[in-house]
Amino acid sequence: MTPEQFIAGLPKAELHMHIEGSIEPALMLALARRNGVAIRWQTEAELRDAYRFTRLQDFLDLYYDGCRVLLQVADFHEVTRDYLRRAHADGVRHAEMFLGPQGHTTRGVPLAVVMQGVLSAMEAAEAEDGITSGLILVAQRHRSEEEAMALLAEAEPWYGRILGFGLGGAELGHPPSKFERFFARCRELGFKVTAHAGEEGPAAYVREAVELLHVDRLDHGNASLEDPALVQELARRRIPLTVCPLSNLKLQVVTDMAAHPLKKLMDAGLCVTVNSDDPSYFGGYVNDNYLACQQALGLTQAELAQLARQSFEAAFMPEAQRAQALAAIDAWVALADTDVTAAATSLLPEASA
Ligand code: HPA
Ligand code: ZN
Question: How far apart are the C-alpha atoms of 79 and 72, rounded to whole Å?
């Protein structure tokens, strides 16, 4: 079995992707046309060509601009349904998706429109493909804490349909400490909380996310390696990291995939997971991310399976479903092992006699 085949059949959870970052160029153009929204690009090739970034802010400028094509319930439904279909095709059994309502409500799109489109697509995906999913609303960190609080209040009608809250957007200059009261309120209400930290920002931001925001998971967290005591703490408390390798490459957080810290983070005993972040902008869905790491870092089947197991360990999902998913990984690994044995046996002279 090739690494591609092993990764393709490996049951996995995806825990770090932004719905708005999964608008494929074809859909972007179709929605622009359908909604009469003027965009700078006329063809898919032009759009793909524009996706070159030297840092996070370059990407965010394009990403927020791209959000303008999303206006109707059907638009939010379509982008979410498309992502979940691709995830299902990649062997994802459970996806926890980020949604950034402020990118829509500040353009005059009602939160109800956004939620109706996204939630109906999540229901359709589960009914049609059996993939389960959850929603994490992210506050934009360049905005004020008051605006984050307003988002929390506005989301109240959907509290029963939301897993948690997170923090995304421009990291440098906007430390987690800016949102301490917002996160305290989210936790009081019983929500899971995550924060982007240590993508472009320093290990000190990761530490703040852990110590001040009390996050259940860290999004990215690459910079943790700069602080050995922090790494020990994350390992001891099994605070998961949702790492996004192709995103890191496209945003020049790493110079090339061989320099990616994924393996170092795993070897330090951290609960690392692999995710796509903004798959249409960064050139790959979750399996592309697993494969890029496998190739550049020489990951073994056992290490790939460990990453998949950790994705379910880190998921905000019911225990019975987690146990089922872990058993499915064991079954796939066992099958892959027999496949290797079968292939080896077929090379022996006895086998062909
Ligand atoms: N980092 C921060 N904010 C984001 C990202 C990211 O990679 N993608 C979408 N919003
Ligand atoms: Zn992200």
Answer: 11
pLDDT of residue 339: 80
Ligand 1 center to residue 170 CA distance, Å?
8
**pLDDT in the model for residue 353:** 39
Ligand in nearest proximity to the CA of 19: 1
pTM of the model: 0.96
How many angstroms separate the Cα of 157 from the Cα of each of 49, 57, 73, 111, 112?
40, 32, 17, 10, 9
Residues noted as catalytic? 199
Alpha helix positions (H), the chain: 3-9, 25-35, 44-50, 56-66, 73-89, 102-105, 111-129, 145-154, 180-188, 203-211, 228-237, 245-250, 262-267, 279-282, 286-297, 301-313, 319-345, 349-352
Q: Whose CA is nearest to atom 3 of ligand 1?
A: 169
Which ligand 1 atom lies nearest to the CA of residue 278? 8
Task: Answer yes or no: is the C-beta of 219 below 6 A from any ligand 1 atom.
Answer: no
